[in-house]
Design a protein that fits this description.
Low-confidence stretches: 51-56
Number of strands: 9
Shape: elongated
Structural class: alpha/beta
Strand content: 25-35%
Family: Belongs to the 2Fe2S plant-type ferredoxin family.
Strand order of the largest sheet: 4-3-9-5-7
Number of helices: 4
Number of domains: 2
Largest sheet: 5 strands, mixed
CATH superfamily of the largest domain: Beta-grasp domain
InterPro entries: 2Fe-2S_ferredoxin-like_sf, 2Fe-2S_ferredoxin-type, 2Fe2S_fd_BS, Beta-grasp_dom_sf, FNR_nucleotide-bd
Protein name: 2Fe-2S iron-sulfur cluster-binding protein
Helix content: 10-25%
Cofactor: [2Fe-2S] cluster
Order of helices and strands: HEHEEEHEEHEEE
Organism: Celerinatantimonas yamalensis
C-alpha cells in the first residue's frame, strides 16, 4: 500500500475525511500514504482497538496459575495471573471470538458460573448481564479457579 494506490482507490482523497480502525499496522500504512499524498492529516481519524493495558501473552516467571473449567467442552485449561481469559482460551485453540480485544465490542462475552475475576471494563454489557455473571474475556483475568461458558 502506498500513496499511489490510495489515490487510485479514492481519487478525491484530499476532499475526504479518512476514518481508520485497527489493525495498527494497517492504520500506520494508511497514515504514511496519506502523508506522502500531502493530505490534510487533521482529517485523518484513528480508532485503535489495541488494549490500553498490556496483558502478557506468555506467563510471567512467578505467575500464579488458575484452573478454568469449561463444561461445554468437557475440558479444563490453565490461565496465568496477568493473562486475560481470552488469551488463555485462544492458547488452547478454543472457539471464541475476540474482535476488538479491548472490551468495546462484546464479542468475547462469557458467563462466570463460579470463581472470581479482575476486569478492566465491561463495555457493552448491560447491568443485568453483569449481575448474571457475564464478563468480557478480553478484559478479564482470573483471580481464582473458574467455571465459565459462552
Amino acid at each position: 500500500m502506498d500513496a499511489q494506490w490510495l489515490y487510485r482507490l479514492c481519487p478525491d482523497l484530499h476532499q475526504k475525511d479518512i476514518f481508520l480502525c485497527d489493525p495498527q499496522s494497517f492504520m500506520d500504512t494508511i497514515c504514511q500514504a496519506a502523508e506522502q499524498a500531502k493530505c490534510d492529516l487533521s482529517r485523518l481519524h484513528r480508532e485503535p482497538f489495541t488494549p490500553s493495558h498490556s496483558s502478557p501473552s506468555s506467563p510471567q516467571v512467578n505467575a500464579t496459575y488458575y484452573r478454568i473449567n469449561l463444561p461445554q467442552f468437557e475440558r479444563y485449561i490453565q490461565a496465568a495471573s496477568g493473562q486475560s481469559i481470552l488469551q488463555a482460551l485462544e492458547a488452547e485453540g478454543l472457539p471464541i471470538i475476540g474482535a476488538c480485544r479491548n472490551g468495546i465490542c462484546g464479542s468475547c462475552k462469557c458467563k462466570v458460573h463460579q470463581g472470581q475475576i479482575r476486569t478492566t471494563t465491561s463495555g457493552p454489557l448491560s447491568e443485568k448481564e453483569r449481575n448474571e455473571g457475564y464478563i468480557l474475556a478480553c478484559s478479564s483475568e482470573p483471580s481464582s479457579d473458574l467455571d465459565i461458558s459462552w
